[in-house]
Amino acid sequence: MNKEKVERDVALNRRAYHDYFIDEKYEAGIMLTGTEVKSVRNGRANLRDGFVRIDNGEAWLENVHISPYAQGNLMNHEPVRPRKLLLHRKEISSLIGKVKQKGYTLIPLRLYFARNRAKVEVGLARGKREYDKREAIADREAKREIARAVRRG
């Protein structure tokens, strides 16, 4: 197993794939405090309501809940606070142009550790309409039925 490719998922945003079409994915580092890192390593993060805001050439992760560390002291972190994302300047400038288009937003898809660094996979997403969601569910059910029929023989 290649040590450089070892990634460990901490939190997934499954709801994002249900509510949005994901057009592009970006990997970003995330600035965390010490107790946040320990809490994330324990799997105590929730990306469900999160989004990315670009402000003054910087990307900020908003509304992501990281539970306070159980063994933390008075210097424990706030559970929901803006956290800076680490992206290259060219990536941020291209994202600014894409987000200004109608209907696009940036949402966190997963939080993971790669080479002992906390990373966030950010998706450039378009919102799904209700009929798109129903269509996706119907396709998934059809695939399940086909798989069952093939297993039965």
Description of the structure:
It is a single chain. The chain is α+β, with helices and mostly antiparallel strands and 153 residues long. The chain has a single domain, classed as Small protein B (Small Protein B, Chain: A, Beta Barrel), CATH 2.40.280.10. Helix content is 32%, strand content 37%. It contains 4 helices and 9 strands. A 7-stranded antiparallel β-sheet has the order 1-8-9-2-7-5-4. A two-stranded antiparallel sheet has the order 3-6. The longest helix has 23 residues, at 130-152. The mean pLDDT is 89.
Features:
alpha+beta; Small Protein B, Chain: A; 4 helices
Describe, in short, the structure shown.
The protein is α+β, with helices and mostly antiparallel strands and 153 residues long. Helix content is 32%, strand content 37%. The chain starts with 6 loop residues before the first strand and ends with a helix.
Q: How would you summarize the topology of this molecule?
A:
Blueprint: E1 7-12, H1 14-19, E2 20-30, H2 34-41, E3 45-46, E4 51-55, E5 58-62, E6 65-66, E7 83-86, H3 89-100, E8 104-114, E9 117-127, H4 130-152
Antiparallel strand pairs: 1-8, 2-7, 2-9, 3-6, 4-5, 5-7, 8-9
